[in-house]
Amino acid sequence: MFDGLKDKLSSFREDAAEEVEEKAAEAESVEAESADAPRAEGAEAEAADRGDAAPAAEPAGSGADAPAVGEDEDATAAEEAAEDDGSAASTFRRAKAFATGKVIIEEEDLEEPLRNLEFALLESDVEVSVAEEIVDAVRERMLGESRAQIETTDELVTEALHDALLDVISVGQFDFEERVAAADKPVTIVFTGVNGVGKTTTIAKLSEWLEARGYSSVLANGDTYRAGANEQIREHAEALDRRLIAHEKGGDPAAVVYDGIEYAEANDVDVVLGDTAGRLHTSNDLMAQLEKIDRVVDPDLTLFVDESVAGQDAVRRAKEFDDAAAIDGVVLTKADADSSGGAAISIAYVTGKPILFLGTGQGYGDLARFDPEALVDELLDEE
């Protein structure tokens, strides 16, 4: 899952570590040269003590060359030269840090790797503002940072990337099962999204997920618009041995979900899972249906379903649906077929609403609770 993005992040880590290590090696060389200089001066002093010193310079005005510049003047001249040369100043700072057991990370180390990271994120369908946020966060965490020489630069790069990814992925996260457990029963969950993204199958999967945790559920088919919708969800209900509440094609979707709630109340069922017609945010009549369901039923949660492989299209649609009829969370289907990971990285940051589940296969058990920390660990091979 998300193997393409994983490879791109690995390349960034390698490139950034290599750039920093090259500069550290230069600093080590400068520090070694500085350390050799005092030893040479000491040797000259020892020679003078033995009487081997060179003849003293002739007094001024005797025709000899002018006196040599003093050590203090040498140091001042070297510092002024370093200030005039940015590269030299950077190397000088690095050398001083290296002498104390530290390696400094500067802008020049990160410029090209960060540019490549941004391109890699965009190629993986990460939304533009999200890619920029990740790159800026990595830069902020690493610039001016120093590490002990006993540490590895890869560890520092990985930590910065880990924190930046986690910040954008985990926006709005809440514990879904805890929310269900704490809510008054029955809990009503309505599913929405565009047509053909696996919404009805996701409802069946969530019913099985709830069952495995001790929660009973009833399915309510509010998709009264599409021919064959009743037959499709009925197949799932029969396969799972769940009760299905459905009306004839063309019926009132809000009435169907409401009937599902009444059935749940009368039969001590914990959760009502309400399907709705696939729609675009520009379908005014269907959006009006969704608004009516929200008004009549007042669901505890409205979940937006889309395909992970849709990338930035999924991100855009999630934002549009949230603007039109507020959603509480997202389910991404086909995550097992997605190598880019752009939607998983971007949706929460763009909408402010969390990803709650990932569809990871065709079976009823192939629904995984979305764990931002686990995802970042997987992307960075930190498991």
Automatic annotation (TrEMBL):
Main location: membrane
Protein name: Signal recognition particle receptor FtsY
Record field: compositional bias (Basic and acidic residues): 1-15, 36-52
GO CC terms of this entry: cytoplasm; plasma membrane
EC number, as in UniProt: 3.6.5.4
Function: Involved in targeting and insertion of nascent membrane proteins into the cytoplasmic membrane. Acts as a receptor for the complex formed by the signal recognition particle (SRP) and the ribosome-nascent chain (RNC).
Region (Disordered): 1-89
Domain called SRP54-type proteins GTP-binding: residue spans: 354-367
Family membership: Belongs to the GTP-binding SRP family. FtsY subfamily.
Biological process according to GO: SRP-dependent cotranslational protein targeting to membrane
Location of the protein in the cell: Cell membrane; Cytoplasm
Comp. bias intervals (Low complexity): 53-68
Underlying gene: ftsY
SUPFAM superfamilies found in the cross-reference section: Domain of the SRP/SRP receptor G-proteins, P-loop containing nucleoside triphosphate hydrolases
Membrane-topology descriptor: Peripheral membrane protein
